[in-house]
Amino acid sequence: MSNKLDLKEDDVVFCTVKKIEGTTVFLEIEGSDKPGAMVLSEVAAGRIRNLRLYVSPNRKIVCKVLRVMPGHVEMSLRRVTAKEKKEVLEGYKKENSLRSVLKVVKEDAEGIISKIKEDYNLVDFLAEVKENSGLLEKFMGKENAKKVFQIISEKQDKNKIVEKKIILTCDSEQGVKDIREILDFSDAEIHYLGSSKFSMSVSAKDFKEANARIEEILEEIEKRAKKKKAVFEVKKEK
User: Fold this and answer.
1) Amino acid 3: pLDDT
2) pTM > 0.70: yes or no
3) What is the mean pLDDT of the chain?
4) Which tens digits make up the pLDDT trace of 121-133?
5) Residue 219 lies in a domain
6) Which regions of 173-229 does DSSP assign to beta strands (E)?
7) Least buried of 12, 61, 183, 196, by fewest C-beta within 10 Å?
8) Burial class, 113, CB count within 10 angstroms (exposed 0-12 / middle 13-18 / buried 19+)
9) 196: domain CATH number?
10) How far is CA 21 from CA 15, 24, 27, 44, in A?
């Protein structure tokens, strides 16, 4: 990638775990040519009973920059807030989506995304494109800009989201670990709201499909919660 990130302290970035050696986790930082390194005390607060719940080779994680050193970047996983993680993951998903669209119209996806990032935050750019389709023409020909806008619009129209709020508590010694395992679903976005409350959302082509999937997930959460003797409740919609 030609446009490398100019990393600074407190930046929150997407990373890939490369390897774990001794007490250090080595990371590849998305958009940067500098390697990242994270000590185990920055993976999670307190004693870590099962490191693989947090980091393992090739796993994608969101980390915060602690210090930028001459040869590497010191990173932290435990200091990333739920809001920061959500923003970074949203940006990553939107970048991959735009990349796939650009490839459909046979444009230089990496080059265009790199140029956009020089002037815009990618999430903000795509939001602006909704109101001003001509903005795309700055980065590609008029015909392809029109095609890209059409594909993006169709994708937005197709994605329907169903959301539920749940309460989940676990009083076991490894409560945080148990809750992580209970809520481990790759196709649902789950965010902690505080006071044992969580929001959960699933997107699909139509509401029926999204609703069916979220009901399946809720059933599975109930089963997992019973096995771990956790208290689970779906909040009723007002």
Assistant:
1) 44
2) no
3) 87
4) 888 888 888 778 7
5) yes
6) 189-194, 197-204
7) 196
8) buried
9) 3.30.70.1130
10) 17, 5, 11, 17
